[in-house]
Structures are given as structure tokens and as C-alpha cells.
Amino acid sequence: MPVVIDLFAGVGGLSLGAARAGFGVQAAIEIDPIALATHALNFPKTTHLSDDISTLTGSELLTKLGMRVGELDGLIGGPPCQGFSSIGQRRFDDARNSLFYHFFRLASETQPRFFVAENVPGIMQEKYASLRQEAFDCVANDYVILDPIRAVASEYGAPTTRTRYFFIGIAKSVFLRESERIQFDFAPAESIEKITVRKALHGLPVRILPDWIEDVQGWRKVNISPELKNTPFFERVVGRVPVNVGHKESIDKYQKDRLASGCLGTRHGSEVVLRYNQLERGKIDPISRSPKLDPNGFCPTLRAGTGKDRGSYQAVRPIHYLAGRVITPREAARLQGFPDWFRFHETKWHSFRQIGNSVCPIVAESILTEIYQKVFAQVEAAD
């Protein structure tokens, strides 16, 4: 099984996509201890490191994993995007912007067969052209850098309009070893079913009590219609558990009793509940700025809020289309494309941050499956 290292791993959206595509997740690097601990719950066989990627060298990373330069199959990761995001201040001098460069530096120093870096559309602005070029220059001698892939999650079968760019490099020794170059096609298949909010939230409890705030109270029964269980989206919601992935207790509870975690409530005042109930679907509440979900549309991009270093601000959360409340972490996870058996932090605040910061695993799986099939089928044939 080819293996990858996930940089800036977060809770593991990109890792899950890689595992479902056929890769083993050899290691995950994440400086946030809470995110790293949650990743470890879901990827118990993966090596977890809390290194600062801006100071970590490729040699140090490979030594920690008992690997040599050139032995790694893939380097994947989603460098922090807040400095580029249209939601934030988009400061050119945001220190987090340099982490995009460090991803490519580590690719150059570790020499994997391929790399995939994910980021927000804002990074494609002209003012960041020099920053992108500096990063690409790190790998230009050894890699063929493909045209950036603009991926709208809803087009890949996820119930969200979340849009991201993927920067992909294939080692020249792999890409150019045959007389014909490898032809990649990362476009979503036209046959992919569009998953609306209504369908995505199917089976999750609508009645959520506001005093369900402890983790033990958030475990609730899920009822999915038999006719939906074999559809591509719900196959990923219910099962498709890769080898060496998953928190055993959570999987057992889900498979045996159909219990999923994260169905946590939020306390709203009576006037807020009334206002949310009266708000038209698809519109934005003028006070909280929370959008009310349209059951026949897609969820807008979920936001993560800020960490303690930037004031611990809570992100705006969408309003459920049937209930006068904001969505639960489990509903957010569904809308981001995560399976019901996937665990997040036991608190709402950290759960929403982890989900909002994550790569959509459905998109990640699609991108990485194309690489797995084209690159590693080619490698096996050559060997």
C-alpha cells in the first residue's frame, strides 16, 4: 500500500480521503494539540507529530518515521488559509501565509512521488502571485506542477458549495518515464448525484434539546432509509471504513446501535427561536448573520471561527431549515461530507472549529483516487 504524510492534518478530512483512495496515512503533522488528539482517535495506526512545520526539515521528518529521501509516496496537506480567505482580512503579511511555502519546501526536501496542497480561492489573487511562485520554485526542478484544480464540493457529491484549489505535483521520474505523459482528469463525473441539504441531513434527529451539552447527551440514534444506504453519498456516511482507520468504540456504537455522537444542542432565547422559525429558508438572519439552510440547495461554506491566539471567536453557524436552532456538530459533519462514525471533539466549540477547518473528505477522495489510479497503476506496471 502506498503511503502519504499529511501536513497541517487538522482533524483528518484529507487523511480520510487519502485512506479511502487507497493510501496508508503514515504520519500526520499538526501543531494544534486538540486537533492532533482527535486525528489520533480516528487514525490510531498513524504516527502523530506536533512539530512546527515552519522549522521542521525534510530530513528530520523522514528520520522520525524511519524513512529515506525518495521513499515517500505522497505528501498532502492544507496549509492554513485564513490569511488568504475572503472571509478574513486577507493580510499579505499574515505569518500563516508562509506555511504554504513551507509545504513545498518539505516536498522538495522529502522527494515524494507526488504532492497535493489544498487552499482557498483567495490564494489565486494576483497579489499572491509572488508567494505562489516562490513555493513552486522549490519543486520546479524535480516535479511537473499540474494546473491548479478548482473544486466546488457540491459538484463532487458533497452537500456544500465549499470551493477550494488543489495544487498537485508529480515527480518527473514518474510522470516522464514513459513515452506518453500520464493524462489526469480531476473533473467530477457528470453522473454524480447532487446532494441537497434535505438529503444530506436525512436520518439525523431534528428534535435537539438545548440542554444536550455534554458529550454523553450527544449520542443519538440515526435512522437512514434502506433505499438510501447503497447510494454513493450514504455509503460514505454509513460505512466505507478504510483499513486502520476509525475509533473502535464509535464504529461499534454506530454499526450495532446506529448511535452517532455530536448531536449537541444550543441554548437560544425564545425571541431568537421565534425569529429563526420565521426566517425564510435561504435567507440570512439580520442579527446573528446566520444563514437559514435551504433544504433544496447546498450548505454554504462552514466557517471555523478563531483560536485562542485570535480571540476565540465563535463562527456563524447555519440555522436548521426545520427547527428554530443552529445546526449540531453532527449535522455540520454531514454537510461537510464526513461519515457518522467519525469522531470530533466532545465540545461544540472545538467540533465546529475542526469541521470548519477541514478539507471535504469527499473531494479529497476524488482527487486522490485519480492520482492513485493513474500514478500507482503506472508504477506497478513499470515494476
Describe this structure in words.
It is a single chain. This protein has 383 residues and is an alpha/beta fold. It has 2 domains: 3-190 and 360-382, 3-Layer(aba) Sandwich (Rossmann fold); 197-356, DNA Methylase, Chain A, domain 2 (Alpha-Beta Complex). 32% of the residues lie in helices and 11% in strands. The chain has 13 helices and 10 strands. The strands form 2 sheets. Strands 1, 2, 3, 4, 5, 6, 7 and 8 form an 8-stranded mixed β-sheet that branches. Strand 1 (3-7), helix 1 (13-21) and strand 2 form a beta-alpha-beta unit. Helix 1 (13-21) runs parallel beside helix 13 and helix 11 packs parallel to helix 12. The chain is globular, with a radius of gyration of 21 Å. Residues 85-94 have low confidence and may be disordered.
Helix residue percentage: 25-40%
**Regions with little confidence, pLDDT below 50 for 5+ residues:** 85-94
CATH class of the largest domain: Alpha Beta
Write down the overall mean pLDDT. Answer: 91
Q: Which CATH architecture of the largest domain?
A: 3-Layer(aba) Sandwich
Please indicate the percent range of residues in DSSP E strands (runs of 2 or more). 5-15%
Shape label: globular
CATH superfamily annotation of the largest domain: Vaccinia Virus protein VP39
Q: Could you say what the CATH topology of the largest domain is called?
A: Rossmann fold
Q: Supply the number of helical segments.
A: 13
Rounded to the nearest angstrom, the radius of gyration is 21 Å
The end-to-end distance, rounded to whole angstroms, is 14 Å
Work out the number of β strands: 10
Element order, helices and strands? EHEHEHEHEHEEEHHEHHEHHHH
The profile of the biggest β sheet is: 8 strands, mixed
How would you classify the quaternary structure? single chain
